[in-house]
Amino acid sequence: MTDITSLPPETGPSFNLTGKDIAVAGQWRLFWLKFKKHKIALASLVVIVFMYLVAAFADFIAPFDPNATNARFTYAPPQGFSLFHDGSFQPNVKQLKMTLNTESMRREFVSDSAKPVSVGFLVKAPQPYYLLGLIPMQTKLFGLMDPQVGDSLYIFGADRLGRDIFSRVVHGAQISLSIGLVGVFMSLILGVTIGGISGFFGGWADLAIQRFIELLRSIPTIPLWMGLAAAIPVGWPPLRTYFVITLIVSLIGWTSLAREVRGKFLSLRSEDFVIAARLDGMSEIGIIFNHLVPSFMSHIIATLTLAIPSMILAETALSFLGIGLQPPIISWGVLLQEAQNIRAVAQAPWLLFTPAAAIVISVLSLNFLGDGLRDAADPYESVS
Questions:
Q1: Cα end-to-end span (Å), the chain
Q2: 166-205: per-residue pLDDT in tens?
Q3: Taking CA atoms, which of 139, 149, 266, 334 is between 20 and 30 Å from 344?
Q4: What is the Cβ-side half-sphere exposure of residue 271, based on CA atoms within 13 angstroms?
């Protein structure tokens, strides 16, 4: 077997590093070298970071209050946004003109290109708000420059109450994306702790834990979630409902991570560094969290990244079925409830496509990112 340190630089890995550099590189350095080869995962990381930034600064980015209604623009279609008008830089949207269809006796909207509505950046907010719940603000990222009666700004259209879909999708990202992170964090705590105990100590503890995990995994996931979600009292405040839904989507998610952690512990508990730590007087819990868990932390990160999409989809499915989060809470699943009515979808298809597009983009990006992290965490894959 050829020692990598003996290879000449031109035959070594292609990261401007010599074979000796690779041989002494740390675990996270090797992890990054392998991850950045995955171009789709890198692009997905940028998309995910952007979406979480949008969720964090939703109050600043959304031009309107997501619950503000306007009876004049119920089911208003998306307005075309343009950066130029008459050859000059002037952000604007086309004014909507309402007409009555005498055949169907329904209101219809048409764009009036002769009456552009000026849109500006860093405009004064219709009402003051707190950025991140802490900083008082009176500025929005964009909005109407000089709003007059009849002016509107519906980039993604409006719903049956005249609420801005763009503002609601942006605010919905706060719940839908955060519920995945909170659920994954809870799965991390349960999976690493219970799986670590099972794999490190073995014996009756391992037997009892594995049988309990098998019992949980034998229960159909969707009916279990539906049954638990249906038991939530209707009168609970939104914050408590959000917390309970997070618990529900995390109830099963930790079992697969616990099994993977158990397998890692079974293979590492007899290694020399574990024996040395035990002889040095370190406690069993200290060995688990100071030596064993950090040794495969990159693998845990990859596994959790792949678990976030399933939790987002679980919350979306429960809310769409009407047994998860409920208004006035805004999430992508709650927004999709508007698409349950075929007549509404036929009249306003943006009610379905806009939140669905946000869900598809986030789930695909998280899956691609998870694939890249998983490949980078594979200890048997070559860095070159």
A1: 17
A2: 999 999 998 888 887 888 888 888 888 888 888 888 888 8
A3: 149
A4: 14
